[in-house]
Amino acid sequence: MAQTPADFDAVIIGAGAAGLSAGKRLQRDGLSFTILEARARIGGRAHTQIEQGFALDLGCAWLHSADRNPWTKIAGGLGFTVDETEPDWGRQSFDAAFSGADRAAAAAASNAFFARLEAADTSRGDFSADRLLEPAGRFNSMIDAISTYINGAELEHVSVADWGRYADSGVNWRIVEGYGATIKAFGDALPIRLSCAVTLIDHSGPSILIETTQGRLTTKAALITVPASLIASEAIVFRPALPEKTEAAAGLPLGVANKLVMTIGTADLPAAGHFFGDPTRTQTGNYQLRPFGQPVIEGYFGGGLARELEGAGNRAFLDFARGELSRLFGAQTVARLGHLSETAWASDPFSRGSYSYASPGHSDARQRLAAPVDGRLFFAGEACSTHSFSTAHGAYFTGLEAAEAIIETRRGLLAKRRAP
């Protein structure tokens, strides 16, 4: 890319949900812009992979708050199929060692914990979510495991004030052809440069200079939508430095949630179901039998367990899952399960995790990360969302808001120039 004075009105860094929604808005207003994406594909942490004819979402998979989630309407408009079947996350479908009475008691303990979370008073200071557990509670490990799936981290790491701000309608649907496929189709027609990692944003002069692995370009405004982990680690260098952004991003680490998809090579399993591998432990998988009726099992692993298994390398997820499922279904049945796909988000160089949570004492970091700098640098992404963090719709809304701010800033500057 050859450098020319003020190449663009705006440059968007990152072609995930936030960057794509911002691009659509800038496109409607006629601004000149381009999107720079370090990956060889668009979608960011949304990615659908087709395996043996199945659409597997390796990143985000659920339309959370689907009744008000913009991706629900977008998916329908693009011809995708929204499955409105309610999830059965709250039910342990079967486990001979986990009786009906135990399941009812576990559900009551979980509901009581979340009620305490919703009612928590943080006016005199934030604190970690594990302090809301019932002392010596029988189901504390299970509740902690749930946190690893929701936050990608155990309760001791998670801010109560931040988690309490999450707004959820309770409606959760899925897209049969894939959430990642939907987001990709949404952004396909936008001007995107793939395999183009940004290394430096120099905002010291009248135009912003952006250096990339494909060259350099200049712009009047830059919108940064990369994961908070990359800002915290200064994977992109700002000149002059932005220590307030680095500090805010450091308070919003990315938790880890990884998936394992196994093929079912036996008829000796129930037709459907959702269950913990071991509801008495924090380090346990969460499993869904035959999603969309497909002959697979989706395994979900979060927090320290996800990091540990990812670090252990080849077959670690499969071996762990087989060990847990053998207890439920027998070793002979589980031996027929085959490896189809798995994720490794912690070691992904372009995200270094799955989605953000706020550390205790850093519940205001989202607003600080999202705040524009000098009316020229703008920030968006799920970590910038106060009430819908960790989701693709949260990312979408922050991208839209940042694009609106860029447009208003450009209009204001043009009006000043035209004034007598």
Number of strands: 20
- Low-confidence parts lasting 5 or more residues at pLDDT below 50? none
Distance between the termini: 37 Å
Q: Domains counted in the coordinates: how many? A: 2
Approximate helicity band: 25-40%
Structural class: alpha/beta
- Please name the CATH architecture of the largest domain: Alpha-Beta Complex
Identify the CATH class of the largest domain: Alpha Beta
Q: What percentage of the residues does DSSP assign to strands (E)? A: 15-25%
Work out the radius of gyration: 22 Å
Shape: globular
**Number of distinct helices:** 13
* Largest beta-sheet details: 8 strands, mixed
Using the coordinates shown, work out and report the CATH topology of the largest domain: Polyamine Oxidase, Chain A, domain 2
**Overall pLDDT, averaged?**
94
Name the descriptors.
Amino_oxidase; EC 1.13.12.3; Polyamine Oxidase, Chain A, domain 2; Tryptophan 2-monooxygenase; 8-stranded mixed beta sheet; 420 residues; FAD/NAD(P)-binding domain; alpha/beta; 2 domains
Question: How does this structure look, described?
Answer:
Keywords: Auxin biosynthesis. It is an enzyme of class 1 (oxidoreductase). Pathway: Plant hormone metabolism; auxin biosynthesis. Belongs to the tryptophan 2-monooxygenase family. This is Tryptophan 2-monooxygenase. By secondary structure, this protein is α/β, with parallel strands linked by helices. The chain has two domains: 159 residues, FAD/NAD(P)-binding domain, CATH 3.50.50; 195 residues, Alpha-Beta Complex (Polyamine Oxidase, Chain A, domain 2), CATH 3.90.660.10. 34% of the residues lie in helices and 20% in strands. The chain is built from 13 helices and 20 strands. The strands form five sheets. Strands 1, 2, 8, 9, 10, 11, 12 and 20 form an eight-stranded mixed β-sheet that branches. Strand 16 and strand 17 form a beta hairpin. The longest helix is centred in the C-terminal third of the chain and has 27 residues.
